[in-house]
């Protein structure tokens, strides 16, 4: 049993904290909003009114914040200045599971080392449903011994862990994965829309493609039209799932990384612009598969 500070109790952080509590850990949580603090307390956690209070007695600190800006702010303004008296214990392990840009993640890991904090980046795949079910996939960057120490804690919230490499490697893997996912979803929408225009039933075309060379996760598990998969957000008017605003955020992170590394990502850039248009049409809070509506504005099934 460890004392774990969880900073950021949003759609992901709160259910993740719940699994840590279920696993027997003492969870000290902190959020700038009141409602998730009450929910944490109801789940058996300890609601702390400041990051300092949450971190003070922690052996492990986990952040699940919106972006690199909040993560850097919490670390630089609050956590690094704290003097942690851990002389006869192992140093506090810091895990960032937020999705943030690789450059910030690497800078923060370098800063963590100078402050004596072992740090890993451990962004997740699996979305809100994966966080609730405790089936997340962690993509981890950092030193092997730090990853080994984090493994049992992460596995209380997930089912798979990949050690992708050194600092920032987890964020890099997450970014590449989500860029491809964004592209695959647009391509899947395009093919299904063309099929409809050619008189094919979406279910028939989807069944054919799932058994053919175009099979992919967006088609098989998360299709953009209702009735093609039991769990698809399309069945519930695109509520829940992975919202367009977050897909756009991740494509922006990939775009920034491509600029920095002078890497051509033409389809990633195109996908980024398509999701930007979809966002401008008011679809930010809908699952990203709702981008079908951008390609087929007349489609009643996909109208946001
Ligand atoms: P969210 O907006 O629901 O939660 C973020 C929480 O952080 C909010 O409750 C907010 O009040 C809190 N917060 C902001 N600044 C804070 C501060 N300074 N101190 C304490 N709390 C603060 O976001 P989310 O959906 O939980 O996502 C969290 C991270 O996980 C993001 O980086 C996101 O990209 C990533 N992610 C999300 C999903 C998803 O499906 N939602 C999937 C994979 C990864």
Description:
The chain has 304 residues and is of the alpha/beta class. It has 2 domains: 3-166, Rossmann fold (3-Layer(aba) Sandwich); 172-294, N-(1-d-carboxylethyl)-l-norvaline Dehydrogenase, domain 2 (Orthogonal Bundle). The protein is 49% helix and 13% strand. It contains 13 helices and 9 strands. It has helices at 13-22, 34-42, 51-56, 68-79, 102-114, 127-133, 144-155, 169-197, 202-210, 217-220, 244-260, 266-283, 292-295; strands at 3-7, 26-30, 46-47, 60-63, 93-96, 119-121, 124-125, 136-141, 158-165. Helix 8 (169-197) packs across helix 11 (244-260) and helix 11 packs antiparallel against helix 12 (266-283). It starts with a strand and ends in a 9-residue tail after the last helix. The structure holds nicotinamide-adenine-dinucleotide. Residues 7-13, 30-33, 36, 51, 64-66, 70, 74, 98-99, 124, 127-128, 242, 246 line the site of nicotinamide-adenine-dinucleotide.
Which features characterize this protein?
304 residues, alpha/beta, Rossmann fold, N-(1-d-carboxylethyl)-l-norvaline Dehydrogenase, domain 2, 2 domains, six-stranded parallel β-sheet, three-stranded mixed β-sheet, 13 helices, globular, binds nicotinamide-adenine-dinucleotide
